[in-house]
Write a structure and sequence with these properties.
It is globular, with a radius of gyration of 19 Å. The chain contains eleven helices and no strands. It has one domain. It is mainly α and 260 residues long.
Length: 260
């Protein structure tokens, strides 16, 4: 399949799935569905590239595993959180800022995420197109980083979920485990995952382009819809306790010496 045709098919698939996510938002009044479908879209795109593109079979299998497993785990984790918990604070903030015409605004927002999915899927695309034999040093190093990052993200998610399940912690700030060295360890390890994808794709033709994915993720996580909106809502709901947390614990990159 021609690359242009593949990208158009990827965009159509991502947009269609995001339309389903928007319909779920309309049915449940929870915009957080966009996050579950954002991750699920990337898993679908990775599996589609691995199946349809003509690269080395071992490398295509790697794309299916690292992209599919990561995306499916994250999508399932977020879907459970959406169905069993309240709206994500980030979207409460967006609702307050947008005020009116919310369905149309969220439809636009969901479809922008579909475009972002296709842009971020470039490392998977480049790997699945690469016909060279699998086994470059950068690929092995990228796989090792992927294992560390996936484990770190999974542990951070599990620690936060366990903290929230305890009624005694209602209104408190999670400072347990990885959350004691970073205010957003889940975001940090998510970014490391994208670094691992880019590292695995580095040796492919045009592989340097794949580094746009972790750069874009870093920007979104630290400047747009990640940390800024999350912390704005956390300060509003937890007040001085969260401000103290901000003073003492690193926002993103784990720091093992607390600042008091």
């Amino acid at each position: 399949m021609h690359v242009g045709t593949m990208l158009l098919a990827a965009l159509g698939t991502a947009a269609g799935l995001m339309l389903v996510a928007w319909l779920l938002y309309r049915a449940t009044d929870k915009a957080s569905w966009v996050d579950a479908f954002w991750a699920g879209n990337l898993a679908v795109l990775a599996l589609g590239y691995a199946w349809l593109l003509p690269g080395d079979p071992a490398r295509r299998a790697m794309v299916a595993i690292v992209g599919g497993l990561w995306g499916a785990r994250l999508a399932a984790h977020i879907a459970v959180r959406v169905t069993s918990g309240p709206e994500d604070p980030r979207y409460l903030t967006l609702r307050a800022e947008w005020k009116d015409n919310l369905p149309l605004r969220f439809l636009r927002f969901f479809q922008v995420q579909a475009v972002v999915d296709v842009v971020l899927s470039v490392p998977f695309l480049l790997m699945a197109l690469d016909a060279a034999p699998f086994g470059r040093v950068t690929e092995i190093a990228g796989l090792a980083l992927w294992v560390v990052a996936l484990a770190g993200e999974s542990v951070a998610d599990a620690q936060l979920a366990r903290f929230r399940r305890d009624p005694a912690n209602k209104g408190r700030v999670c400072r347990t485990g990885l959350w004691s060295v970073s205010r957003h360890p889940n975001y940090f390890f998510e970014w490391l995952l994208w670094c691992s994808f880019a590292l695995m794709a580095t040796g492919a033709p045009w592989g340097w382009v794949s580094w746009s994915a972790p750069a874009l993720m870093y920007y979104f996580l630290t400047r747009v819809t990640g940390i800024p909106l999350t912390e704005q809502q956390a300060v509003a709901s937890k007040g001085e306790a969260y401000r103290a947390y901000q003073r003492e614990v690193s926002a993103f990159i784990p720091r093992f010496t607390a600042r008091r």
